[in-house]
Design a protein that fits this description.
- With 240 residues, the chain is α+β, with helices and mostly antiparallel strands.
- It folds into three domains: 52 residues, no CATH class; 83 residues, no CATH class; 79 residues.
- It contains eight helices and ten strands.
- The strands form three sheets. The chain has a five-stranded mixed beta sheet, with helices on one face. It has a three-stranded antiparallel beta sheet with strand order 3-5-4. A two-stranded antiparallel sheet has the order 1-2.
- The radius of gyration is 21 Å and the shape is globular.
Length: 240
């Protein structure tokens, strides 16, 4: 990566123009992978494309097995969707990686699916945990995660319990996870989850008195906070 960037900067100097792509931009977008020995590395293909086009963006989709990750999320195989939701919020999750998993035609367990995602390049693996490596892959995982939303009916400012919840995700399938999302500016995500509990927003997924609920899956509380000064978002999730 260093050699490619030096050549790029040299070309810009010859043309007497300011480099449109910075080293920090390359780090944010394409760093985050690890070799087996623990050394950090960039996505070389995307770095080369970015410097050639003089633009930071997602060049990964034309090279990777996009359909596979969509299938895992859409069908929520082995609850991988819940793991990805945590990773989208910036968390890493524990996993036992198996290098042979990507060659298997049948990925049935959580470990097999996450292993395949590491081998394909969707996720980064380090010290027993997997995570979304950089902004390029975060954009892709967010895209396919949101594409899987056709399994939910999403309502905003819906009446629930003793108040109005910001967003509530009603699953189309009985066994899919029910999601309650509360947004808080100037507060912590823990406070958002506390509000979900105190105002009993989960009651929307319960059946009426004497009736059986049509929702049988888990209920997930999601709190997202925003700091107006630092412009930083934080997210926490908790099963109710």
């Amino acid at each position: 990566m260093d050699l490619l960037y030096q050549r790029y900067c040299g070309s810009c100097n010859q043309q007497k123009k300011t480099p449109a792509v910075t080293r920090e931009g390359l780090r944010i977008w394409y760093d985050g992978y690890y070799t087996k020995s623990g050394d950090r590395m960039y996505n070389p293909r995307s770095v080369a494309a970015s410097l050639t086009n003089e633009n930071l963006g997602s060049y990964w989709t034309s090279a990777g097995p996009y359909d596979e990750i969509f299938y895992y999320i859409e069908h929520n195989v082995a609850d991988v969707r819940n793991d990805l939701a945590l990773m989208i919020s910036g968390e890493s999750v524990p996993a036992k990686i198996r290098e042979y998993a990507a060659t298997s035609m049948n990925l049935n367990t959580r470990e097999e699916i996450l292993s395949a995602m590491v081998v394909y390049g969707f996720l980064s693996y380090y010290k027993g945990r997997v995570s979304i490596p950089n902004r390029e892959l975060s954009a892709i995982v967010n895209l396919v995660y949101l594409s899987a939303r056709d399994r939910y009916r999403i309502e905003r400012e819906d009446k629930a319990g003793a108040g109005f919840v910001d967003f509530i995700f009603y699953p189309e399938e009985r066994g899919d996870t029910c999601i309650i999302l509360e947004l808080k500016a100037g507060h912590t995500p823990e406070e958002a989850i506390r509000q979900i509990k105190e105002k009993q927003y989960a009651i929307r997924f319960k059946g009426k008195l004497g009736e059986k609920s049509k929702y049988t899956g888990k209920i997930l509380a999601v709190g997202i906070s925003y700091d107006k000064k630092t412009k930083v978002h934080k997210c926490r999730m908790e099963e109710l």
